[in-house]
Amino acid sequence: MSNNPLTAAGVALLVEGLAGNTSLKHLSLLHTGLGDEGLELLAAQLDRNQQLQELNVAYNGAGDTAALALAKAAREHPSLELLHLYFNELSSECRQALRDLGSTTEGSAQVVVSLTEGTAVSEYWSVILGEVQRNLNSWDRGRVRRHLELLLRDLEDNRGGTLNPWRKAQLLRVEGEVRALLEQLGGPGS
Hints:
The protein is built from seven helices and four strands. The protein is of the alpha/beta class.
């Protein structure tokens, strides 16, 4: 369902459909415009589905309160293993609170608040930036700029939080590529 805008009514119907579903294990609602209202509805109704293992609500414009509510619901869910929250409008304080929440409860869902968390950063950043570079002239420039700004903030946040010099160097290199793309869009890259 990724990249398909959902209205509030659409989210309500989706939640109803999830309630009795026993076969759906992975649900990606990436970039569906859920916002705070959609995440809060999911948080309130998540326990109605007992089979879901992975939920991706990344890049939905959600803020701190809604993200924390969904993360808490995910941590209490019996089968959910992974919740993706990266590229939302989360403050640095909220990201840290979500990371702290993840370190306090064993055996519950991992909450991913950054695309660059864990080992996956090296697998994805070059693909993402390559795709942006290829489509820079055909995509909506404002949307591309916003996406790159979110990625840059994500990279800077993670660089500041790691002590590993090799990882810092990798993150700095990617930051430079993101800044270069932002400059190509017609302005300084933060």
